[in-house]
């Protein structure tokens, strides 16, 4: 799995011109699932996401988690995180998981983050989405399992 995590002041995702997910202060998370990824690893990554200290404290230091600040999380699936452009000019996506497995892991991460009392909004799995985000910092962290 690959997670691209961005600290945001606000973020919104829309499908066909309709807002489907919107948050204020918190984290915007893109999730890519690769071949061979396991559901059990989703629990570990969700826990890391909730508790990772990347939110600013009163001195503007990254000492707080999204949970500590009462922040929100916007989660969007993105198989293109497994794009490989090593050869040629067109990326290959053969390392991305099949949609059924990817959706199961994506939904498990969302469920586990919510179990921590965090408000979670989402995009629509597999849909073409437009995203507006106001980055904070900017802070971008990549996690790979």
UniProtKB/TrEMBL annotation:
Annotated transmembrane regions: none
Main location: cytoplasm
Statement: the UniProt record of this protein carries the keyword Chloroplast: no
GO biological process: D-amino acid catabolic process
Catalytic activity: glycyl-tRNA(Ala) + H2O = tRNA(Ala) + glycine + H(+); a D-aminoacyl-tRNA + H2O = a tRNA + a D-alpha-amino acid + H(+)
Family listed: Belongs to the DTD family.
Name of the protein this chain belongs to: D-aminoacyl-tRNA deacylase
Taxonomic source organism: Candidatus Blackburnbacteria bacterium RIFCSPLOWO2_01_FULL_40_20
Gene: dtd
